[in-house]
UniProtKB/TrEMBL annotation:
Positions with a binding annotation for NAD(+): 9-14, 136, 251
Compartments in which it is found: Cytoplasm
PANTHER family: GLYCEROL-3-PHOSPHATE DEHYDROGENASE, GLYCEROL-3-PHOSPHATE DEHYDROGENASE [NAD(+)] 2, CHLOROPLASTIC
EC number(s) recorded for this UniProt protein: 1.1.1.94
GO cellular component, one term: cytosol
Gene3D superfamilies: N-(1-d-carboxylethyl)-l-norvaline Dehydrogenase, domain 2 (1.10.1040.10), NAD(P)-binding Rossmann-like Domain (3.40.50.720)
Name the UniProt record assigns to this protein: Glycerol-3-phosphate dehydrogenase [NAD(P)+]
Chain's gene name: gpsA
Length: 328
C-alpha cells in the first residue's frame, strides 16, 4: 500500500481534495483544526458545514491530531486559509515530506507569498503549489477539473502529478510557482471588484473591463516578483480568474456582489463559515506591490472599499478618472 496523503484543512476545498484523492482507494488523512469537527466528520462522513451533500470515502481518516495526520505521509497538502498557513507550519514537526500549498492568498501584514512563508518555517521540506479553476463541489462530485502544480523542482512536480492525478482531476506541471501563487491570490481580489460592478449596476461591460485590466495588473505584479508571462494566460491565471470573477458561486464574487447591492461588510462576514480570501489579500497585495513600484489600481479600489476608506461610487470614479494610456 502506498504511503498516505495528508490533507491539512477540513473546509470545503480540503474535503473535496480528500474525496478526489481517495478515489483510487489509497489512504488519505484529513486533519481538522477543531476536535469536534474532526469527530463529526470521522463518524458521519459528511461535512455539512462546508460542503453539503458530499461524502468522505471510507479510506479517508479524519483526525484533530496533527502528528497523527502527518506521520509517514508522502506529501502534505496545506489547505488551510492563507492567513492561517504560518500558524499551521509552526506546529509541524521537522520532516522531509514535501508541502503542496493549496491555499490562495498573500500574507497580511508582511506581503509574503505562501512559499516564502513555508521556506522560512519549514526549510527542510520541498515545496510545490497547486492552483487553478476549481469549485470544490464539482471536484468532490468527480466532474472534470484541470489544475496546475508548480515547483522549482520539476521531478517533484512530476511525482505529485502522478500521485494525485486521475481521469477527472488532471494536474499540469509548471516551473513557475511565483506566477501561479500571484495569479491565484490576486484573482480573488479581481473577483470582488467584478462582483461590486454587477451589484452596483455598472453593467457587464464594466465587469469585462475589470476582469481584463485585473489580469493585466496581476501579471505586472507577478513579473515583478519573478513570475513567467505565460503563466497568467494559463489555468492558474486566466482560467481561475474567469471562473472566480463571473459566478455567484464564487465566495469572492458573491461578496463583491452583495456589497455592490448595499450590504455592509460586517453583515456579510458575521457568522460566515467560509473564508473570503480576497478581502485580506487586497491590502497584502498592495503592500507587496508598493515594494516593487507596481501599480494595482483595481486592488487599491477593492482595499479602499473593504477597509472603509472609500464608497463603491468613489472608488469606481477614481478608477475611471485614471489617465488615458496605451493598453498593456
Amino acid at each position: 500500500m502506498s504511503a498516505p496523503i495528508a490533507i491539512l484543512g477540513a473546509g470545503a476545498w480540503g474535503t473535496a481534495l480528500a474525496i478526489a484523492l481517495a478515489r483510487d482507494d489509497g489512504p488519505v488523512r484529513l486533519w481538522a483544526r477543531r476536535a469536534d469537527h474532526a469527530g463529526w466528520l470521522q463518524q458521519s462522513r459528511h461535512n455539512d458545514a462546508y460542503l453539503p451533500g458530499a461524502r468522505l470515502p471510507d479510506s479517508v481518516t479524519v483526525t484533530n491530531d496533527l502528528d497523527q495526520a502527518t506521520n509517514d505521509a508522502s506529501v502534505l497538502l496545506v489547505v488551510t486559509p492563507a492567513q492561517h498557513v504560518a500558524g499551521l507550519l509552526q506546529q509541524l514537526k521537522r520532516g522531509d515530506a514535501p508541502l503542496l500549498l493549496c491555499a490562495k492568498g498573500i500574507e497580511r501584514g508582511s506581503g509574503r507569498l505562501l512559499t516564502e512563508v513555508a521556506r522560512e518555517l519549514a526549510p527542510s521540506r520541498a515545496l510545490a503549489v497547486l492552483s487553478g479553476p476549481t469549485f470544490a463541489d464539482e471536484v468532490a462530485a468527480g466532474k472534470p477539473t484541470a489544475v496546475t502544480i508548480a515547483s522549482d523542482d520539476d521531478p517533484l512536480a512530476a511525482s505529485l502529478v502522478a500521485r494525485i492525478g486521475s481521469p477527472s482531476f488532471r494536474p499540469y506541471r509548471s516551473p513557475d510557482p511565483i506566477g501561479v501563487e500571484v495569479a491565484g491570490a490576486c484573482k480573488n481580489v479581481i473577483a470582488i471588484a467584478c462582483g461590486l460592478a454587477i451589484g452596483a449596476g455598472l453593467g457587464e461591460n464594466a465587469r469585462a473591463a475589470l476582469l481584463t485590466r485585473g489580469l493585466a495588473e496581476t501579471t505586472r505584479l507577478g513579473l515583478a516578483l519573478g513570475g513567467r508571462p505565460e503563466t497568467f494566460a494559463g489555468l492558474a491565471g486566466l482560467g481561475d480568474l474567469a471562473l472566480t470573477a463571473t459566478s455567484p458561486r464564487s465566495r469572492n464574487y458573491a461578496l463583491g456582489l452583495a456589497l455592490g447591492e448595499g450590504a455592509t461588510l460586517d453583515e456579510l462576514m458575521r457568522g460566515r463559515s467560509s473564508v473570503v480570501e480576497g478581502a485580506a489579500t487586497a491590502g497584502a497585495a498592495l503592500l507587496r506591490a508598493n515594494r516593487h513600484s507596481v501599480e494595482l489600481p483595481i486592488a487599491q479600489a477593492v482595499a479602499d472599499i473593504i477597509e472603509g476608506r472609500a464608497t463603491i461610487r468613489d472608488a469606481m470614479r477614481g478608477l475611471l478618472a485614471r489617465p488615458f494610456k496605451a493598453e498593456g
